[in-house]
Amino acid sequence: MKSFTSHSLKETEQIAKNWLVSISNTYANNDEALVVGLSGHLGAGKTAFTKLVSKIIGVKEDVTSPTFVIMKIYEPGQKINKESGIEIPWKRLIHIDAYRLERREELEVLEWEKLVSDRNNLILIEWPENVSLKEFEPQAHLSFNSLDGSYKVTIK
Q1: CA distances from 143 to 39, 45, 156 (A)
Q2: What is the pLDDT of residues 94-141, one digit of tens each?
Q3: Which class in CATH covers the domain with range 2-155?
Q4: What residue ranges do the domains of the chain occupy?
């Protein structure tokens, strides 16, 4: 487990870049999607982190919180980030916000098993603790805590 404190969006972007390098190397040859849990209270930085990840992997669309629609799917615009040299092994970034969900079964409407079985998906799920994932436990987990003007990101 590693913890980082960020005092700015620029510092958080560097944390996101370093994390992406690590997970893309570790999980590039996965047989299934990479599922990443993002935990933390409201306003702790989960969606901001997702926006930075999407920017780094080349998503051109404006990434917003999927709180009311539950899930949004984005396509990275590149295979390698020219600035950082990060190889992007995923064809889709799937951003799920489980804040309004109460049970794992509610993910079935999103075709959860199909999403998880596709190795081309990077799935970032906010509030994973609201939906017990059991057999599809996140392979990576990030916890966010807002401090006085800064954020603490813990990577498990």
Answers
A1: 5, 9, 8
A2: 999 999 988 888 888 899 899 999 999 999 999 998 887 655 567 888
A3: alpha beta
A4: 2-155
